[in-house]
Request: fold
Amino acid sequence: MTLYERVARPVLFRMGAEVAHERTLRALSVLARSPRLVAAGRRLAGPNDPVTVFGVDFPGRVGVAGGLDKNGVALPAWAALGFGFVEVGTVTRHPQPGNPKPRLFRLPASEAVINRMGFNNDGAAALAERLRAWGPLPVPLGISLGKSKVTPIEDAVEDYVHSLRTLHPFADYVAINVSSPNTPGLRSLQDRGQLGALLAALRREGDALAGPGRPSVPLLVKLAPDLTEPAIAELLDVCTQHGVAGIIATNTTLSRDGATGPHAAEAGGLSGRPLAARALEVVRFISAETGGTLPIVGVGGILSAADAERMFDAGASLVQLYTGLVYRGPSLVRAINRRVVRMPHLDRKLRENP
Reply:
């Protein structure tokens, strides 16, 4: 067991899950304000594997998944832990408190988490001000956009477009979250017609914000693991038609297969070990369906370097962590980074299918 698992995790697990999350973020926000500590952490984080995916230069292939630092309060600190990129959010046009507490639950016997946070965040304008204050970050920044709960589903397109307009100057890529199970009606935006209208509007806005002759910010779509393969194929067809730069596979699941413990029946999205097999299936299917030409960010059930290697072998170009960090701590990032540099076939695959 690592030092985190022996010492820090037992202390954190004696707290409520959301309390532990908030206290960890506060500690990381202190680290984030010290450039010297961030630089020292990056040096200690071990080897890395720089790569270019959808036109963005990543110093490493392991990223922070959306949801860990929704409001961007500790962004530089994640680089100090060895992460090669950070996805902030999910952020919405309007600030919102999210769902009533308790809304975050650990399932230790299953190495899983259930959340029904409900896109709690300070809103797009507040995030923009915080990002402006941070200035340039040491690693690429993805911004995950979602629909405000108060916005009717028929007005969702303008809601997303407004957030893109507000946050575009700070994003290295934008993730379109249409797959969270915790905002009523959101997953209906994965349907062909609604997704096509949303992506068309975001592409138009992105092109206009970039200006003539400049590439617009890459758009990625985050999909649910609960879709059938025909539904995923249809979603990929829509994404291809609208020039989507990549897919994030996957969000949390409504399934409870493999989930045990007193909180296993709680409402919300399940992440962690029980999601691993399904997330891997989805990544493998997307890679096969697109001939490996559409970059994939693999996320779901990565709790070891071997789990990450399986994701890469299935077709992912990058991976993200959330629940794995809860159960394994920062040493998981370093372990994956060390494993990646011993996988030279990754570079060959990316050169063949950039």
